[in-house]
C-alpha cells in the first residue's frame, strides 16, 4: 500500500455510501484488508505507509500506540457494519498486512479477526491471511494465530542471499523464512506463501536461482515474485543516485522473471497472476483475486483503501490522525471517488488481463480490439482463449504486460 494518497471528494463524517454502491451488495463477495502500520525498522526500498517507533514519537501520543491499535481498528470494523447495513453478507476473505502485523501480539490479531466475525460473520470456508516478518514469530505465536482462525500466512523472504538482503535493509537472516514455513505447517496452517523480490542491485542470476530453490525447498504452496521497484524518496533511491549501488535495468528484470517461471513451473507451481504462482487451485490467494476482479473490500487502518460498488475511498495516513477520527466518532476517510462505468471498464481490463484466465474481449472498444488482434499476431496473447473470446497473455506477453494493457485500453 504506497504511502501517497490520491485526491478526491470528501468522505461524509459518518462514512455513508451512495445508495447505488449498496444496491445488490448482498450478492457480491466481501473481503477485509486490515492494515498494521508499524515496523521495527524501515527497509531501504519501502514506500508503504508504515512507521517505526522513532518516526511516531511525539507525533501521535497515546493514540498512535501499537499497544491499543487492535481496539482502534475494531472501531473501524464497527463503523463498516453501520455503513454497509444489515444485509446478510458474510466475509469471504480477511488479509492482515503492513507494515509488520506480527509486531502486534498474536492475541491482538485474533481480536481484530474476532471483531469481523462478530459484526459480519465469516464464511465457512473463509480465507484468513496475515503477513509476517520471519524474525517476529515463533511456534507459540503461530499456534495462537492458527487457533484463533488464521489459515494462511505470508512470510517476507525476499532473498536467500545475505548480500542481497543487506542492500534491501532486511533484518532477517538467510534460512529463517524456511524455518518459519516448517513452524507454520506444524501449527496447522493450510496455506503458506513466500514473497520474493528480484532485480536487487548486486543480485546475480545465480543468486536469484538460489533464492527460488531455497523457497521451494521450504515447502510453501504459494510463491509471489516481484520485480524491485525503486521508489523516489526511499533510502535505496538515494543510494542509487549517489552511485553507491547500481540500478538494475528492465532486461535484467525480464531475465529474472523467465528464470522464476522456469523454476517454479518445473516444480509444479502454475502462474495464475503475473507475479503469483500456486501449487494448486486451492492455494491461490482469494483475497488478492477480490482486488483483481473488482469485488468489494473494506480496508481498515491508516492509509488503507476500500472499494464497494464502484465507490473507492482511502483513510488518512497517520496513525494518530486515524485514531483521533475514530475516537471522535468520525470516519477516518480522507477522500473518495465515484467510478464511472468507463472507469470500471478500464480497470477490469487493467486488472483481469494480469490473470491467467485473461479479460473478456467484450470489454474492449474498437481500437482495443484492433490492438488485441495485433497482440495476438505478435505472440503476446494466447490463440485458444482469444478464439473463445478472451485476451490472455502468453509468457512473452507477461513480460510486456503493462504495454499490452495500455494498447488495449487506449
**Global mean pLDDT:** 91
Structural class, judged by helices and strands? Answer: alpha/beta
Radius of gyration: 21 Å
> Helical percent range?
25-40%
Which consecutive residue ranges, at least 5 long each, have pLDDT under 50? Answer: none
User: Which word captures the global form?
Assistant: globular
> Strand percentage, roughly?
15-25%
Organism: Streptomyces broussonetiae
Domain Radical SAM core: 24-270
InterPro entries: Coproporphyrinogen-III_oxidase (IPR034505), Elp3/MiaA/NifB-like_rSAM (IPR006638), HemW-like (IPR004559), rSAM (IPR007197), rSAM_horseshoe (IPR023404), rSAM_sf (IPR058240)
Protein name: Heme chaperone HemW
Structural account:
It is found in: Cytoplasm. This is Heme chaperone HemW. Probably acts as a heme chaperone, transferring heme to an unknown acceptor. Binds one molecule of heme per monomer, possibly covalently. Binds 1 [4Fe-4S] cluster. The cluster is coordinated with 3 cysteines and an exchangeable S-adenosyl-L-methionine. Keywords: 4Fe-4S, Chaperone, Cytoplasm, Heme, Iron, Iron-sulfur, Metal-binding, S-adenosyl-L-methionine. InterPro entries: Coproporphyrinogen-III_oxidase, Elp3/MiaA/NifB-like_rSAM, HemW-like, rSAM, rSAM_horseshoe, rSAM_sf. With 410 residues, the protein is of the alpha/beta class. 40% of the residues lie in helices and 19% in strands. The chain is built from 17 helices and 14 strands. It has helices at 19-22, 53-56, 69-84, 106-119, 139-147, 162-168, 176-187, 205-218, 235-241, 250-266, 286-292, 319-327, 341-352, 366-377, 383-387, 395-399, 401-409; strands spanning 30-36, 91-98, 122-132, 152-158, 191-198, 222-227, 270-273, 276-278, 296-300, 305-308, 311-315, 333-338, 359-360, 390-391. A 9-stranded mixed sheet has the order 7-8-6-5-4-3-2-1-9, sandwiched between helices. It is globular.
